[in-house]
Description:
By secondary structure, the protein is an alpha/beta fold. The protein has two domains: 7-214; 221-509, 4-Layer Sandwich (Nitrilase/N-carbamoyl-D-aminoacid amidohydrolase), CATH 3.60.110.10. The protein contains 16 helices and 14 strands. The strands form two sheets. Strands 1, 2, 3, 4, 5, 6, 7 and 14 form an eight-stranded mixed beta sheet that branches. Strands 8-9-10-11-12-13 form a six-stranded mixed beta sheet, with helices on one face. β5 (327-329) and β6 (332-343) form a beta hairpin. α1 runs parallel beside α3 (59-74). The longest helix has 29 residues, at 82-110. It is globular and about 80 Å long.
Amino acid sequence: xxxxxxxxxxxxxxxxxxxxxxxxxxxxxxxxxxxxxFGLLPVLMLKNFIENNKIKHGWLLIYIVxxxxxxxxxxxxxxxxLRGAIASMVLYSLSLTLIILLYGWFKRKFxxxxxxxxxxxxWLAWEYLMAEGELNWPWLALGNGFASLHxxxxxxxxxxxxGGSLWALxxxxxxxxxxxxxSSCAARQMKxxxxxxxxxxLLPIFVSHAIYISYKENVNPAKFLILQPNxxxxxxxxxxxxxREQDEIFLELLYEGYDDEIDFIIxxxxxxxxxxxxxxxxxDSFSRFAAAAKNIGDASMIFGASTHYxxxxxxxxxxxxxxxxSRRLGEGWYDSHNSSVLIDSSGNYSFxxxxxxxxxxxxxPFQRYLGEFRxxxxxxxxxxxxxxxxxxxxIFKSSDSRISIGTAICYESVYGNFYREFVLxxxxxxxxxxxxxxxxxxxxYRQHLWYDRLRAIETRRSIARCGNTGVSALIDQRGDITxxxxxWRRESLKGELNLNDTITVFVxxxxxxxxxxxxxxxxxxxxxxxxxxKISVRAKI
Length: 541
């Protein structure tokens, strides 16, 4: 039996393919970020086609677009745990589909203007919730699609990533409205719409390039040595090599690259483990690194570690559970942390606990209610349960107190609103330590690197980025990568970054666009409830 595609099916297939490509390529192909501006246009065209042709179960077609987008751009999560990856992709795609369906309902009930308003505000509110809620996943925020084309979003210092999402939503909505009203609109009205579209499309690009060209850093350098030990997290990190062997690789890179002008030595996330924060010198790794810091001069060392704090017997917290993340140790309690550790030349040390944890990796959201869903946890050499966190960011100081450096640990650098807290606490330069080797040679580590460039723009803080397997990089205040290592190579990177004390609008006010959208949704909820009550009353009459 021959299978013949009819005209409707061909149109649907084309819209699905174009939608997936426009949404996916900005996250996969360097320099293609401008495509995200039209990412939702095929989706809206598909929604319109489904309604006009009364296609049954048409919402599944919209769902397929979003599901293929999430698979194409974040399939690499499955390298760690396939079940957890599938669960996250299925649920995230479903949530976006629901937004499109609700947009269609509002448009039918209240007209196009309110329908478009709901779509824009609803999408922004959802991205805000994905960044601030307990079950969070901001990776595919539309504004992140510009990460590899950072010269067009220099104004993120005023808006953050939500500004980019708003830009993409407006361009898609205006383009769609022009497409569907072209035949019914008067020529003058259509001309006005076209002018609006061109203005919304081009003005942010011109403004951004003007900011990029005119932005000048104050010359106030700090010198960094970034160590990339390149230890395979699947083979060597947790069993193939001893910790002593790993430490020797780290110290060899340190001694090869060190000079007397170095201010900070940066090592990757969770490089070592088993450090008891109350008694750190009992750890062989900690003692080795402390000895190295003492021998090399005035430079301070920052590295990642899995650490534990044991509540002492004489404390009031010994007999009661101190925190929700605390675990039993004999008759007492302890907390585990994904930490960054600072050791200076005098032997002083301090810890910062990673506080934006990866859902299903470092903590189980809503553990009280979802404890039975342990099978979806993505295990990355750790254990089931939650790490401890801290309420405020910790800033590390150089030995002469000239440099105040914040250290975002891995996933923390994806959250602009969270990341800015380091700057509010006084950071005049930033570091990001990570282990992107879990995602192998995939878009995952490249996307993460691109997102760090957005953080540099939002905060106007240079970044010393250290990845266990790469890519390690020096990123300046405009988001330019001034130097970088290769992926999956054992090497070091040395260079200078300028310090900056200026507070940007975004740092000062945070994600105000997301907050406005989130609270604006209360109005739409009230409208929806009013409409439903009215329908119910009419039905009874």
